[in-house]
Amino acid sequence: MRSLFDINELSPAEIDSLIATANDMMANPAKYAHVADGKKLATLFFEPSTRTRLSFEAAMMELGGNVLGFSEAQSSSASKGESVADTARVVSCYADIIAMRHPKEGAPLVAAMNATVPVINAGDGGHNHPTQTLADLLTISREKGRLDNLVVGFCGDLKFGRTVHSLINAMVRYPNVKFVLVSPNELRLPDYVKTDVLEANNVEFVETSDLMEVIGDMDILYMTRVQHERFFNEEEYLRLRDSYILTPDKLKDAKSDLCIMHPLPRVNEISTAIDSDPRACYFKQVLNGKFMRAALIMMLLGLEAK
Fold it and tell me: Who's near 212: CB < 8 A, 6+ residues apart?
């Protein structure tokens, strides 16, 4: 039995296989409509989510499976003091696979160590979000035709952004990928990511607080919101939340085939005027996430399309 806690648990070859399955699913949905007949997915979401939870549920339903679960801690026995380990053991009696989101880093790993069915980390604190990374990788692959030889820019909250940390971890394994890190000083990429991931893999990166200075170099621009829920100081959040707002005029020096991404939800980091720009890929990311989660469910349950 295998679970997924961290994107690095998947080899590049396995990621390529998941991308191939997702692409085939997009092209031939009927082929996959009954792959998970009789299987049940439990979505255990201890913090709010729209896209990730509904994406998992839609993925399982489109494979022919069923879904059960909860969307907030208050509606689970956690409100009575039940541990994550016990919740995982209990839910294993009802479902064939679990997707868990939790505000505490490492909670899905604890669940995986105690469950008797596969557990997928659907986001834990500011730490990991591997299935968002799978959605991002499929988006980049479909838009650029490759996952190597790219300049990837991240802009906004690089300190608390688990989607940023996960995607960097995944992309350092592909040749000739360079990173441009744009953020205010207070929200810079954590030193441990720079040291243990970028520098340890001899990956080239640039840090700056000026988006306009570097936007012309980017093949990918990954915008992030300043995350209110990760701040302990309201005053500091209000000061930093509008640090970067992408508007059409800021794209004047950008490449014509730039891929603009965002894990969503956005607050105001990307002007709605950009939604109609052909370079806007963030809603494509949402759709891609559903197919990559379906492909992952199939892999962890050992299911194949007939």
Answer: 250, 253
Contact (CB, 8 A) for 127 and 161? no
For the record, the structure tokens of 262 come out as 């965002």
Catalytic annotation on 51? yes
Q: How many CB atoms lie within 10 A of CB 226?
A: 26
Nearest to 271 by CA among 260, 257, 285: 260
Say yes or no to pLDDT of 64 above 80: yes
List beta partners, residue 246.
270
- Report pLDDT for 38: 97
Which of these is catalytic: 39, 40, 101, 293?
101
Cβ count near 97 (within 10 Å): 24
Residue 116 annotated in active site: no
Residue from 21, 39, 40, 52 carrying the catalytic annotation: 52
**Known catalytic residue at 21:** no
Q: Per the residue annotation, which of 39, 102, 127, 129 is the catalytic one? A: 129
Q: Which residue has the higher pLDDT, 78 or 159?
A: 159
Looking at residue 14, its pLDDT comes to 97
Work out the angle between the directed axes of helices 130-144 and 51-62 (0-180°, nearest 10): 70
In tens, the pLDDT along 195-251 reads: 999 999 999 999 998 999 999 999 999 999 765 555 456 666 566 555 678 999 999
Q: What is the pLDDT of residue 80?
A: 47
> In the sheet that 66-70 helps form, which strands lie side by side, from edge to edge?
66-70, 40-45, 97-102, 119-124
